[in-house]
Design a protein that fits this description.
This protein is an all-alpha fold and about 120 residues long. It has one domain (about 5-115). The protein has five helices and no strands. The longest helix has 29 residues, at about 5-35. The protein is flat and about 50 Å long.
């Protein structure tokens, strides 16, 4: 049987996933901007990355004001997973088996934190 607050907890889990995902997208935009030859395009990518980071931080602050720090902070590991996947898919950066193993371990740890 589900507890009464499980729906609320799921909402905050989703907010934390959104926050950390936006943080990863911000990192991707920073890197993409730094790879540009055009200073104008680089500045735009970096500015958008900063905006995405601000939104990520606002979502995190909203959530942090409503949940335990020790629980919310555990989701920070997701940012590494998001950055790794985006680097692989978008930037075509090579990722070896050891890093993928680390990603799986972090994912398992994050799930354990979420269930606690």
């Amino acid at each position: 049987m589900k507890r009464k607050n499980d729906k609320g907890k799921l909402f905050y889990v989703l907010l934390l996933v959104v926050s950390t995902s936006l943080g990863g997208v911000g990192q991707l935009l920073f890197k993409a901007g730094l790879l540009q030859q055009s200073a104008y395009i680089a500045a735009i990518a970096i500015a958008i990355g900063i905006l995405v980071y601000v939104i990520s931080t606002a979502v995190y602050f909203y959530t942090l004001a409503r949940v335990q720090l020790s629980w919310a902070y555990g989701f920070g590991g997701l940012s590494y997973i998001v950055a790794e996947v985006l680097a692989y898919l978008v930037l075509a950066e090579p990722v070896g088996w050891a890093r993928w193993t680390g990603v799986v371990v972090i994912a398992i740890g994050t799930m354990l934190v979420g269930w606690s």
